[in-house]
Amino acid sequence: MTVSLPTDERNKFYGEVVYRKKKNHYIEDFFGSPMMVEIQNKIKSDLSGLKSKKKNISAQQELMINTSVEVFYPKLEGFIKAKSFAKVRLVMSAIVNASVLIKKKYESLYVTNGSDNEFEGDISMTVEDGENVTVGMALRKCLDQFYSDLNQVLTINENSIIVYGKVTGSKRGEGVIATISFRPDARYTVVSGPGGSYQLVIAKAKYNIQTVASGFMSYQEDFDAQASMMKMQEIDFKLQPIEAGRVVSLRNVLFQVGTTNLLQESFLELDDVVTFLKSNRKVKIELQGHTDNRGNAAKDLELSQQRVEVIKAYLVANGITSGRIKGRGFGASKPIASNSNEEGRKLNRRVEFVIIKN
Fold first, then answer.
1. Per-residue model confidence as pLDDT tens digits over 229-256
2. CB under 8 Å to 186, separation ≥6 — which residues?
3. Which of 52, 267, 274, 327 has the most CB within a 10 Å radius?
4. Are residues 315 and 201 part of one domain?
5. Are residues 302 and 187 in the same domain?
6. 57: closest CA among 117, 97, 105?
7. Are residues 203 and 177 in the same domain?
8. For residues 4 and 62, is the Cβ–Cβ distance under 8 A?
9. pLDDT in tens, 85-126
10. Handedness of CA 50, 51, 55, 61 (dihedral sign)
11. Which CATH number characterizes residue 318's domain?
12. Neighbouring-strand partners of residue 72
């Protein structure tokens, strides 16, 4: 096992807000102590017993731990009962025989107010003592998170992978509580926490990920876990708020060429639209159908209108009131890309809906 000397990246984050508008000033950091060596020694000490306990790593394999330090900032204020805080942010990676198992960013903010429940005793101490305590506790929390993840990636089934990430709102970037489903396997569903973070162990397979949250448009994307070389994969989601004028592209709602016959793969996304409308009963939408410009303009306009009516009929048949759905075909009159090549024409052949009332 090898633990490299951490890379000092703090100067890239000069002026970052650390806590209650306090900003990170690199030159004030920790009295200029040789912290990179201290962090390296701490990790070595923590992992000293891992060699005899680690699983799924043979004698011919070498585990390498790399660290980048982005923020390492302590501050102590006050005289009698000192108030102290520290923020630590590390990028940690674990590599086995040149194969990256995990690379993840860890962050911890540790705050005291004169007394502390995690560090035993009263925080009545010198400034240097206070800063050592708080930054040490913040570092401890970051490293403990990494060790927990490292243990998982070293011990989970070879055909499994850990997915993690954060769900946020697209406008303010706030964390969002959401239900994340890795379909079609109902076992792989997780609810993100109040800050939007989630983590889940799934089998290596192909999935359609659906993310649903109150007050936001549902979102889906495909994910091939079989193609991932890492044992821990980050997948973040930015959700759009429900608001009038919002345009939603139904990318997987497809028809046989020149017909109104829906392809089988369309129904999963159409069912998502049904779920969305049932969960947001005040919402009204307008379905909009579009084609490329290769056919007769009048026939394309008629075909796009007929396709919109087919989709509306499906939604109504699945419990959505007809009055909540308008439909309009535009033919080739509203391209979003050039019709001079197949890639552009494919983008122009689309079905969307627009929220007209929320």
1. 889 999 999 998 999 998 988 988 988 8
2. none
3. 327
4. no
5. no
6. 97
7. yes
8. no
9. 888 999 999 998 888 999 999 999 888 765 555 654 455 555
10. positive
11. 3.30.1330.60
12. 88
